[in-house]
Structure formats: C-alpha cells, structure tokens
Amino acid sequence: MSNDTKTPASAPIPAVDPRLLQREAGLQGYVNEFVRKVRGGDIGSLPVVIGLIVIWLTFGLSNSQYFAPSTATYIAYWMPGVGLLAVGLVFVLLLGEIDLSVGSVSGLSAAVYAVLAVTHGLNPWLAVFTTILTGAAIGALHGWIFAKIGVPAFIVTLAGFLVWQGVMLWVLGSTGTINLTDVGLNHFLSGNSYVLNGDVSGGYILAVLAVASMAYGSFGEQARRRKAGVPFKPTSELLIRVGLVAVGAFVAAYVLNQDRGVPDAQVMFLALLIICDFVLRRTSFGRKIFAVGGNIEASRRAGISVAAIRISVFSISGAFAALGGLTIAAETGAASQSGSDPNNLMMAIAAAVIGGTSLFGGRGRVWSAFLGMLVISSIQYGLNMESLNQDVEYMIMGVVLLAAVIVDSLARRTQKSSGRG
C-alpha cells in the first residue's frame, strides 16, 4: 500500500454546529447541553435566577415577614410603572444604543394626560391615546435626529432629558401638581383596582391563560420547525417548560390571592410583555432589530433600512415611556414634578441590564424588564423592612448593576473565544 494513501481514521473530522446536534437521550443529554451553553457564554437568565434566590433567602431569613403575601402584592403593584420604561429601553439597547430621555418623557406624558383629562375635561381614554402618541412622536424625533443627522443617541436623548423636563414644568404650571380623578386608565391602574374586582378566581384565570399561551407558542413553534425539517425541541422538554410555567403562575396567583389579588397594572404589564416578545421573536421587524444591533454594515448590505429601524425603535421607547408615566401617576394619584424623577431612568436602565439585555446590542429579551424589576423590587422591599436608609439602597443597586454588566461582558468574551460572538 502506498504511503500517500490515508486511512479513514486520519481523515479530518468536520466541525458541526452544536446548535444542530440532537439531544442525547435521557437527563444526561440535557445536562450536557446546559454545560455546553454555559461554557460557550450562553448563560441566559441563570444569573438572575440565582440572584433572586439569594435575595429572597437573605431577606427571608432576616425577617420571616418577607415571605408574607403582602410582599408579593407590593412587588406586583410597584413593578409596572418603571418596568414599562424598561421595556422601551430593551428595544433601544438591542440596537446597542441608549435613551436617557425616558424619565422626562414619562413625567411630561403624565402632565399632558392630567391637563387634558382633568383640567380640560377631555374623555380620559382619548387623553390616554393622545398622551401615548405624544410619547411616540417625541421618541421618533429623537430617532430621526440620531439616524438622519448623525448626532449620537447619547447626546440627543440627554438633550431631550433636559428639554422635556422643562416642558413638563411648564405644562404643570405654578402648582407643580395635578391630582388625577379616579376614571379611565387611572382607575384601571390605581391601587384600588384588581382583577375581577378582587375575585380570587381572577388570578387563576390569568394563570390558565398564561400557561395556555406558553403551550400554544411552544408547540406551535415545534410544529413549524418539524414541518420545515430543521431541529426542534422534543415534546418532553416542552412539557417540562410548560409545567414549570404552570407551577410558577398558579403559585403566584395563590400567594397574591392571600392578600388582595392581582393588580390590574400587573396584568397590563404582562400582556404587553407577551405582545412585545412576539414582535421581537416572531416578526421580520423584530429580526431586523436584532440584525441592526448585531452588525449595522451587514444589515445595510442585506437591504435593511437602518434609519427606519432606529427611528421606529426610539418611537417605541417614547410610547412605553408615556405609558410608564401614566402608570406611575396612577400609582401615586397625581401628575407632579416628581414624575420625571431621574431615579426612574436609572432603575429602568438597571432593570433591563440586570434582567439580561446586553449593553452592547444584539442580545436580550423584553422579559429582561420583568426579571430586572423583580430583582430591584425585591431588594427595595427587603431594605424597607430592615429600615435601612436610601443611601444603602443606592449602593446595593449600583453593585448589582455593575455585577450584571460584568457578567454580560464576560459572557460576550466567552462567546467570542468559542467562535459564537
């Protein structure tokens, strides 16, 4: 046999994309896949879940009242306001940009609603619609200046932060505060409004709808991928995922029903998260956002209008800032100068990043806003129970935010080293 003849054993083994590998049978296959993802920097929501467990155990062991149903009610009630700001910021962060104006836009939006609905007696729902359009228009203006003129988004939105703060003070007038009437959206989002007027069945109905939505989306995707002949998640895994969601949903409903039930504001928050998640993961518009955030030049060559995506994303951020401002005003019962509190902006950014959205663009989900706000609200309530000063809260939030960014940076570095960045 010639020395030039190679044996089959010496032939190079072709590299296989691990995302195309089928899972091994049994539990070991899932364990191996999980380890592979973590080593490759694909850690998902793992840091947030671990962080929540540590936070709950720390405060729960320090004060047994932390696990009381009233804690869940507090968290569920105060999450949506700033959480809606965080949802809009997730869209912007996916582009690798930042919107520093959402705090002022939220305060201005609450002021606009109060003047229209209270001072001038406009139909409350028409006032809500007008207010959200105002926020969307402001965001589109920021996006246009950024996309068409080329001014960095940081500068554009920082200027917007100052400008809209001044406009809000002008709209509110000399009193600086306008109390809201208990009608329209304000009634829906106020502290006296719970699903089905406090009926305990309301929370369980929501849990059923959440599980049904999860099952429909998961098995629908499996069917589509199976029909297309591409790898799909096995039925056993989908059943486990749906089962875990069911346990979480019904436990949450049970705990909240021990107090006053599920706040309507939380229902609206979750509904919008589901809609936005569908838009980002199931539509061409959502895929274009990820594409622009991942690589602008490649997106242009693929025929994507980068300017249009940028303008639309900042418009979405403005609309969610307006809706968040309305929610915050309803929670406090008034539109006031505190509506544009810079802390709301900082907490919204922190929530999006802590929840897992990358500051570098191209990676994240709208559920980051929910997870991040859950972390922040859990810490805030625990510190309040311990009667600690606000300075301690700020320091802890800063450390948590820095830790989230460090984890994100290390994950991206790991992905690049493994050829997936």
Automatic annotation (TrEMBL):
GO terms for cellular component: plasma membrane. Keywords: Cell inner membrane, Cell membrane, Membrane, Sugar transport, Transmembrane, Transmembrane helix, Transport. One of its GO terms (molecular function) is transmembrane transporter activity. It holds the Pfam family BPD_transp_2. It is found in: Cell membrane. The chain crosses the membrane at residues 43-62, 74-95, 102-119, 125-146, 153-173, 193-217, 238-256, 262-280, 307-330, 342-361, 366-383, 395-411. Signal peptide: none annotated. The keyword ATP-binding does not apply. It comes from the Bacteria. InterPro entries: ABC_transp_permease. Its main location: membrane. It is a multi-pass membrane protein. Part of the binding-protein-dependent transport system for D-xylose. Probably responsible for the translocation of the substrate across the membrane. This is Xylose transport system permease protein XylH.
